[in-house]
Design brief:
205 residues, alpha+beta, Ribosomal Protein S5, domain 2, Alpha-Beta Plaits, 2 domains, five-stranded antiparallel sheet, 30% helix, 35% strand
Amino acid sequence: MAQDCNRYLVPVETINVVDVIDRSRFLTTLGPASSLDAAKSFIDRVSAEYANANHNCYAYLVGPPGSRGTIGMSDAGEPHGTAGAPMLNVLLHCGVGDLVVVVTRYFGGIKLGRGGLVRAYSGCVQHVLDECRTTERICWKRVKLVIDYPLLEPIKRLYPDFEVVVMKEEFTERVTHSLKLPEERLKDFLAAATERSNGTLKADY
């Protein structure tokens, strides 16, 4: 299912952090997940890598921050509601989208209790988020403009205001600019460019 073309923060890469809580070792692995299949593949890969652990609990959110359209979680053998739900709750309120996290636990011999487990798993996810580098997810739209030479500079002066990137320039009888810009900027940019060209601008997208 296609996602809405929103702009939001997403993880740049896969990262790991380690926490030791009452002798249990928690290894938290976080990464990008732009689709449900990507989230599931990530979980399978991490769980296989740490197959000897006592638990590989997970949570994921595919889509914009806070969205609940494509989410999932698992306690992976921990008492119900003590791992997956607290992990997902942190993801839902972190301001980042398209992400998946697996918390791998090696039991250290001391039981943490329900409250201790909730604090441990949510704290591990918060820790990895604190270390996570993000970038902005942008849906780019490609446009080809055909511009009369006298209008080239006036049209180009619009580009910075609409985050336009020039991919290619061709100079023949008229100037052809192959551009990309954020999709949500497209309508206003074309309106401004058409007005500036007195309606002579040709745009294909």
